[in-house]
Queue: 2 jobs
Job 1
Amino acid sequence: MRKMRMHSAQWRAATVLASVLLVGSMAACGNSDTGGDGGTKDDGKITMGFSQVGAESGWRTANTISIKESATAAGVELKFDDAQQKQENQIKAIRNYIQQKVDVIAFSPVVESGWDTVLKEAKDAGIPVILTDRSVDSADKSLYKTFLGSDFVKEGKLAGDWLVEQKKTATGPVNIVELQGNTGAAPANDRKKGFGEAIAANPNLKIIASQPGDFTRAGGKQVMEQFLKANKQIDVLFAHNDDMGLGALEAITAAGKVPGKDITIITVDAVKDGMQALADGKFNFIAECSPLLGPQLMDLAKKVHAGETVPARIETQETTFTQAQAKEALPTRKY
Ligand code: AHR
C-alpha cells in the first residue's frame, strides 16, 4: 500500500511539472513568433495590416500598386483595406487588424486629427504602427514608430517660389484661385501653408478664392466652374494635386479660356496624366510628390518587427518640373 501511495504522489508531481513545462514552452513559442511585437504566426512571414485612404487620384492608385507589389516582393503577407476617404472606416480597419493580431499596422491617415485612441489600442496590443504618406497630429510620438512620406509644406513652397519668380515683374494684382485637398488632410493643410508663405514675398500675389476639391478630378472640375462663375479675372490656379488640376482643365476650356496661357496652372504630384498636361503646355509647373513608397515601407516593417530602432521621420526625395523638363521625363516616367 505504502509503495502504491508513493507512486501516486510521484505521478501527480510529474503531471504538475509537465503542465508547467508545457505552458512555459507555449509562452516562449509565442514570444519568438512575434519578434516581441505582437504577431502570432509561426511561418516566419510578417503580416501587415494596411489601411489606404481610398482611390481618389492617380497618385493614390500608383501608391496602392507600389505597396501591393512591394509586399509580394518582400514576402510580407498584406491585408489591405480601402477606407474610401472616411476616417471611421480607417479606425474600423485598424481595430480589425489589432483583433487579428497582425505583426505590423501601416496606414495613410485620411485626416491629421483624431487618432490617439486607436493608436493607443495598437500600442497596448504590442503592435507597431508605421505612418506612410501622411502623418497625424498626435502629441504622443510613441504611438507610432516612424513616418515615411513627403514634406508637403516644402511642396507648397516650391510651387509658390516658382510663381513668385514668374511674376516678379508684375505691376498689378495677380489673382490666384486655390483647389485644396480634402479638409483636414495633411497635404491640404501643409501645401496651403507652404504656398501661402512663399507668395507672401510679393504683395501683388493674392489668393482670391480657396475651396476643397477633395483631391478628385470631379471635385476639381466642379469647384473650378464655381470659381470661374464668381470671379471675372483669374490669373493663376494652384491645385493641391494633378487630378484636381486635370478636372479644372475641363472647366477652364468649357469657359472659353486657354489653360496654361490665360490661366497659369500649378499642381502637385507629377503623375503621368499631369506630366502629359504639363508637356502639352496646359499646366505650367508641377511640384513632385512620389507615391512609390512600397519598398521603403516593407523594409521598415521588417526592421520594426525585428525590434530595430528606425528613424522617427523618413522624408521622400522629390523634385519639380517645368514644361520642358516634363517632355524630357515623360518617356521614362514610372507612374
Ligand atoms: O497624400 C498624398 C496626396 O493624396 C496626393 O498628392 C494626392 O493626389 C492624393 O490624393
Note: Confidence is low (pLDDT under 50) at residues 1-41.
Job 2
Amino acid sequence: MIIYNIGQLVGIQPEGVLRVEGPAQGQTGILENAWLAIEDGRIANFGPMATCPVIPSVASVSHDSNVTDACGGMVMPGFCDSHTHVVYAGSRDGEFLDKINGLSYEEIASRGGGILNSADLLHRTSEEELYEQSMVRVREMMAKGTVAMEIKSGYGLNPADELKMLRVIRRIRETVPAAVKSTFLGAHAVGRGYTHEAYVQAVIDMIPQAAEYADFVDVFCDEGFFTVEDTDRILTAAEHLLTPKIHANELAVSGGVQVGVKHMALSVDHLERTTDAEISALKDTWTMPTMLPGSSFFLGLPYGRAKDFLKAGLGVALASDYNPGSSPSGDMRFVMAQGCIKMRLTPVEAFNAVTLNSAYAMGVSNEYGSVTRGKKAALILTEPGWDLTKIAYQYQTPFIRQIFL
Ligand code: NIG
Ligand code: FE
C-alpha cells in the first residue's frame, strides 16, 4: 500500500530511538511532500515525492485501493495512550453535581462515592455487559486516532472482580486492531469489607494470578489511598512478575515517585504535585514521568511541571487517564492541546509526549510512536492544510481524514 502526495510526513525517527528527552523532545523528523509505503502492516519505506514508486497522475485515475492520495494532508503516527481506566461500568455522572457544588475528589471518595462507587457498579454488571460498555469507549478512542492504549483494572477491588476486569481487558486486546497493554491496579482503593492491612495483603495474594493476564502492576500511592510502605510491599511481591507503573503525586507529594524509581517503574504517572526532589529522583533512570492534564482540567488541580522536567534533561509523556472520576475523556488530541496551552509545551514537545514517549511508557515504543521503517503502520492521515501546531491550536476542529491501523 502506498500513500502519496503527503503534505508533511511528521514524527520520523531513526531506528532504535525508544524515547526522547530534554532538548530532543523539542525535535522531530519532518519530510515535506512525501510518500510512504506499507507492507504487512508495517512501514516499509518513505521518501520525497520525486522518488515516489507510483506516478500520481496514473494513480489518481486507477481506483487502486492500495494507493491513497493524501491530497496534501499530514501523516503522523497515531496517538499512544499509556494510562487509561476505560474498563468500567456505568458512569459517575451522579457525582458531577457534587463536584460542581464544590466537593473535592477526596471528599467525594470519603463519602463512599468515587472509586468504590464504580466498584459497586462493576460488581453488579455482567462480564459481557462490561466488555460491551468498555468497547464503546475503546472504539471512540480509536476513532480519535489512538492506536495503542494501556488499560488498568482497579474497579474490582476483590479477587473475583479484579479478574473479571483483567479478562475483559484481554478480550479487548484480542478484538481490536490497536495495541492494548494490561495493568493490574488492585491497589486502587481499599475494597469493601476489608481493613486497609487485609486488603494490601489480598492485593499481594492476587499478584501471581493477575500476572497471567497483565503486563504491569500499578498502585495508587497517594494521600488517603496507599502509602509508600504499602507500595513497596506490593512492588516487592510483584518483582519478576509485573513491571510497575505508579499513580503518584496527584493529591499530595506522596513519595510515590521515589518508590517507583526504586522498583524500576516504567512510568510514574499524574505528578500534579512535584518538588525538585522528584525531578532529581527521575534523572538517569529508565522511568518515564507521565502527566495527565485531563485530570488537572476536570478536577481543577495544578498542571504538571512538564517544562521543568524537560529543562532538567528528562522526557515527559502525556496520557488521557480516561476514567469516570477524574478524566471522563480519552481524547489525546485534547491532551496534546492542553500540553501546549496549559503546560507550555511546544507543539513538537507535546506531540512527542503523546506518541513516542507515551508508547515508551507502556513498553511499545519499539513498534509504535514514530514514523520509522519496520514499525507498525499505525498512522493518522489528516485533512489537507493541517500541521502539528494547528492540531493543538485549533483544538476542536475535526482534522482526521483516515486512520491506518
Ligand atoms: O488516575 N487517581 C486514581 N485513579 C484514577 C481515578 C479513578 C476514579 O476516580 O475512578 C486517576 O485519576
Ligand atoms: Fe489513573
Note: The first strand starts at residue 2 and ends at 12.
